[in-house]
Amino acid sequence: MIGKIIRGIAGFYYVYIEGFGEYECKAKGIFRNRKIKPLVGDDVEVEILDKDSKTGNIVDILERKSELIRPAVANIDQAMIIFAVSDPAPNYNLLDRFLVMMEQQGIQTIICFNKMDKAEEEERKKVEEVYRNTGYQILFTNALAGDIEEVKAVLRGKSTALAGPSGVGKSSLTNRLQSKVSMQTGQISEKIKRGKHTTRHSELIYMEEHTYLLDTPGFSSLYLKDIEKEVLQTFFPEFDHYLGQCRFNGCAHINEPDCAVKEALSEGKISESRYENYKLLFEELKNQKKY
Ligand code: GDP
Ligand code: ZN
């Protein structure tokens, strides 16, 4: 049988087999001699040992589509980051930092702004303005009213890494999302709550057919790693169009004259907020090098 590793603890792998539930497995046999180590997110072949106690052996790992390093997880299709449009106001630096981290790892991110009921029209416009020309898909939700159809559609059939600071409605939203899976009601939100104060391993949660959510732990410490400051600009999609058009080769788009990025900024094609965060992150990467 084929299932997906949703959690790994102390030598055991918990494999979700759709239609059958969760099996506690060990990695055994031929498979052990291979160099590849099973990861959360791996699709695996399970040899069932006992149906009642739900135990089995993992005998093979199916080919990985992708592999995330932070957190270590396989076959994530996309990421969704949740912020409140208001109360608390979005932390754009944290948001851009997350976007850069996902760009670095080649994962597409969807931005979800929750608490739309609390937002003035102005606040919605502001958000749209900041991310204009970035190409990121932006969703607006009201988790309290259950206004989440768009989110459901975006998640369907995929494995999505979910992230966001606390207080933005992440639990409320995920609670709503899984309301159809009656057996599991409360599961994701409880895990998210629990996760607030403890460091945990990554864990996938089954939502519906072929649909999984990865609750991404440690969101508060999003420090950039292994990025050359010169490469940072390539992780801002709306800069793409202007790279190579500056007067100087290797322009950092900060103090150089005749800079196409700064020109785009002055024409409003790149937003102030994004550009400022680019500069802040650039400085941060520059200082990292010193230590
Ligand atoms: P989490 O910390 O991100 O998991 O956030 P919670 O789901 O615990 O929500 C934090 C607070 O915001 C709670 O009081 C929720 O009732 C409230 N909340 C969540 N979603 C919404 C929303 O769409 N609109 C409003 N007005 N409040 C919301
Ligand atoms: Zn430039």
Automatic annotation (TrEMBL):
CC cofactor: Zn(2+)
Record InterPro entries: G_CP_dom (IPR030378), NA-bd_OB-fold (IPR012340), P-loop_NTPase (IPR027417), Ribosome_biogen_GTPase_RsgA (IPR004881), RsgA_GTPase_dom (IPR010914), RsgA_N (IPR031944)
Domain EngC GTPase: 74-220
Species name: Lachnoclostridium phytofermentans (strain ATCC 700394 / DSM 18823 / ISDg) (Clostridium phytofermentans)
PROSITE patterns per the UniProt record, alphabetical: ENGC_GTPASE, G_CP
EC number, UniProt record: 3.6.1.-
Cellular compartments annotated: Cytoplasm
One GO term of the biological process aspect: ribosomal small subunit biogenesis
SUPFAM superfamilies named among the record's database cross-references: Nucleic acid-binding proteins, P-loop containing nucleoside triphosphate hydrolases
Gene3D superfamilies on file: Nucleic acid-binding proteins, P-loop containing nucleotide triphosphate hydrolases, Probable gtpase engc, domain 3
Family: Belongs to the TRAFAC class YlqF/YawG GTPase family. RsgA subfamily.
Binding site for GTP: 114-117, 164-172
Ranges where the CP-type G domain occurs: 65-222
Pfam families named in the record: RsgA_GTPase, RsgA_N
GO molecular function, one term: rRNA binding
Name of the protein in question: Small ribosomal subunit biogenesis GTPase RsgA
Function: One of several proteins that assist in the late maturation steps of the functional core of the 30S ribosomal subunit. Helps release RbfA from mature subunits. May play a role in the assembly of ribosomal proteins into the subunit. Circularly permuted GTPase that catalyzes slow GTP hydrolysis, GTPase activity is stimulated by the 30S ribosomal subunit.
